[in-house]
Amino acid sequence: MRKGNETREKILDIAEAAVLSKGFGVTSIEELIAEAGITKSGFFYHFRDKNELAKGLLVRYAEQNDRLLEQVFGRAAELTDDPLQRLLIGLNLFAEVMGGLPDGHPGCLVATMTYQDRLFDRDVRAMVTETVTGWNGFFTDLIEAALAAYSPREAVDAESLARTICCVIDGSIIMAKALGRPGVLPEQLLMIRQHVKLLFAGAVLRVVSPEAAAA
Amino acid sequence: MRKGNETREKILDIAEAAVLSKGFGVTSIEELIAEAGITKSGFFYHFRDKNELAKGLLVRYAEQNDRLLEQVFGRAAELTDDPLQRLLIGLNLFAEVMGGLPDGHPGCLVATMTYQDRLFDRDVRAMVTETVTGWNGFFTDLIEAALAAYSPREAVDAESLARTICCVIDGSIIMAKALGRPGVLPEQLLMIRQHVKLLFAGAVLRVVSPEAAAA
DNA sequence: TGTACATCAGTGAACGCGCGTTCACTGATGTAC
DNA sequence: TGTACATCAGTGAACGCGCGTTCACTGATGTAC
What is the domain range of residue B23? Predict the structure, then answer.
């Protein structure tokens, strides 16, 4: 990484923490450069204006999140071939990873930005929508795979259930912060896991794969 | 209501909409008075400082919310004596009420404030925590009543499940905004209803009350 | 290997504007006697 | 019923400070020939 990129990342780190605890509009360039140890013009070398900072934050956050999801559910896929188990194990692993963060999840940038969308231009707002749509799609795929293999006890729309997962995650990050209890996020990931489990409890395997049958 | 109170409510209305779409820090007193048609000193007659405005917003929001919860689940209690049905019907009614809002839920003040807590003093932060604790307590009571009557298929902690409800609500308000789909909140209220239903599917009634037995 | 030039990663000063808060003051309404 | 006083619901002007953005400039590093 070139020196400029290091500075850029440093600015983004400082900005992200500030935005998650005070909001974007009230996070001043002045405070960022004070903490980063550069001048204001140094900041404007990296970001054309403040909106560009928002874009930078969002892109980086979305990438980090995608990597995490892929790691966790990728690991689950290594452990089993059964699509339902993959989802259940993935949620377990996710809960473990989130439980391992000492101060809890630092906050969802997409959530705050959604509550401040009047501050951003069309571009950034579209990116927020797109990011969330991506998350929903990720879980929808997992759920559809499970639905293709098993028939659930009650009718389920894969997309609705995928949204439930996203809602629970974003909601429990807020609850955890509001209550000062970082444990709420892992706890709630296990609750949504229970929901999925109950949905498929005693379900009939539609397509029998040898591995799934053995398990 | 005295004239002063009308003005105060008007300020709160304008401020709430602004806070939910831009954030508290960036909502200026200047814009509020411009829309309300008073002068700056008029504002400071009603609120000692900006933090007092936050307090006013929060108190009012919490009261409105409590009233809504009591209406919805009070109505459910009128319709049935069975504590499980009360919870299930209440969630249904809640979904209906939320589905009836043409532009969807305007946003949860507690959620934004949680993501901006560095802006507020100890007082306001404590009020946020207390408000959320109150919501959790409300649902915990309902769930405990159901647990006292029926044994669920899987072990459930009433408080965890109560938190799930709160997480889903706050999370789906965000998802609805981010996706531009107001329908997500009612949809997700029905998902959490499904979770409760599955938990108690085929459950044994522990204490038989005549009405519940008839139903 | 030396030299010219380009790009990178910034510096420093200035700008105009809007912000939250304070202060001394005021007309209309309500209340006590 | 009249009068004095208090309270309510504001007005108007001023304050100092921090904000985002622009501009002309610069030293260090990289690249072409």
Answer: 1-47
